[in-house]
Amino acid sequence: MGVITFRRLGRADFPLLGRWLAESHVARWWNHEFTAAAVERDFGDTVDGVEPNEDHLVLLDGRPIGLIQCCRYADYPEDIEELAPLLAVPDHAVSIDYLIGDPSLIGRGVGTAMIVRFVEEIWRTKPEASCIIVPVSAANPASWKALLSAGFRLVARGELEPDNPIDDPLHEILRLDRPVS
Fold first, then answer.
1. pTM above 0.90, yes or no
2. Euclidean distance between CA atoms 107 and 129, whole angstroms
3. Tens-digit pLDDT profile for residues 130-165
4. 159 sits in which H/E element
């Protein structure tokens, strides 16, 4: 498949990110504005270090192909509160979100491969991270099946506010615990 690496998202990447957010396969699930102003508004604070999450460009053999985000649940107590009726979020839990921007790479195992590689990065760079918990719309089987293929397990199902208002609120919630050394 090639070598998957990551680098922090920068403002120079915003035009590319805007194009990806406009792609139908991304827009369906991210439901995100893709104008230059919207990308700046929604990703600028992370680039500046004001927002506590991390946005990384996914590179395949050095070529940008997608985006992967990581955040600590502790930084977003509203997310812990929303998940509380479905499962307890452990201390030091993190979450990820991701997209493949290049439509020619959809359905080829790239999503699973980038998740596996990014999980390795999380374990390496965030020694405090106890687990990764990812809620995914039940209507997006490609996403939650990529997580299952990457070693996550289904730990809960339930209703959460969908990213896209056209979706049913049913979500699959997947978890991967830090390996015991």
1. yes
2. 29
3. 999 999 999 999 999 999 999 999 999 999 998 888
4. strand 153-159
Token pair of 155, please?
A: 């730990």
Backbone angles phi, psi at 138, to 5 degrees: -60, -25
Rounded average pLDDT over 29-48? 92
Helices and strands of the chain, counted as H and E runs: 6, 7
In this structure, are strands 4-8 and 93-100 parallel, antiparallel, or unpaired? unpaired
Record: fold of 4-177: Aminopeptidase (3.40.630)
Contact 95, 45 (CB under 8 A): no
Residue 181 has pLDDT above 80, yes or no: no
Write the secondary structure of 17-75 as one string of H (helix), E (strand) and C (coil). Answer: HHHHHHCHHHHHHHCCCCCHHHHHHHHHHHHCCCCCCEEEEEEECCEEEEEEEEEEHHH
